[in-house]
């Protein structure tokens, strides 16, 4: 199955204990912009610039909703549980075009600072791994060195540390050392 065929499938909603992981919608622009505009969030991602230029959140939402996207992105939505409507987001990107070559994906996430140290990232990761919507055989992740909390989220979910690397961080305008993790799905 080609990436294009996988992506055009409707993105599912995934239940977690205290919230749902749901596809991005246009009404998320304001909260995504507010949280992604926080320097602490931006500096722990590869692609969020800081300061956040006008239109960035809108363009992100458009890409996340596009039929030809290469990454599925879910909003951590706790509104039904009297929590935030956008507590963060988690994404799963296809790394290969043909699932017969290994079914590899890369996971990434960020949580709004108001929800740091509350287990939201742990719960979101557990729910997404349990659902395994891409039917991935192997899932990779990386975090910037110094972000021990995200490293613990990954190791607590069964990811194994496999080494150091580096990635460019737009907000820092620099290459930043990373820790790389992998999880074999059974």
Description:
With 186 residues, the protein is an alpha+beta fold. It has helices at 3-8, 29-36, 39-42, 56-65, 120-131, 148-156; strands at residues 14-15, 20-23, 71-77, 88-94, 104-111, 138-144, 160-169, 174-184. Strands 1-2-3-4-5-6-8-7 form an 8-stranded mixed sheet, covered by helices on one side. Strand 7 and strand 8 (174-184) form a beta hairpin. The protein is globular. Mean pLDDT is 93; it is low at 1-8.
Please outline what is shown here.
The protein is α+β, with helices and mostly antiparallel strands and 186 residues long. Helix content is 26%, strand content 30%.
Annotation keywords:
alpha+beta; 186 residues; single chain; eight-stranded mixed β-sheet; 8 strands
Widest β-sheet, arrangement of strands: 1-2-3-4-5-6-8-7
The structural class is alpha+beta
Which sequence of SSEs, written as H and E, runs from N to C?
Answer: HEEHHHEEEHEHEE
What is the arithmetic mean of pLDDT? 93
Report the count of strand segments.
8
Low-confidence runs? 1-8
SS element count, helices:
6
Question: Could you say which overall geometry the principal axes of the C-alpha atoms support?
Answer: globular
Q: Give the DSSP E fraction (strand runs of 2 or more residues).
A: 25-35%
Largest sheet: 8 strands, mixed
Helix percent band: 25-40%
Radius of gyration: 16 Å
How far apart are the first and last residues' alpha carbons, in Å?
20 Å
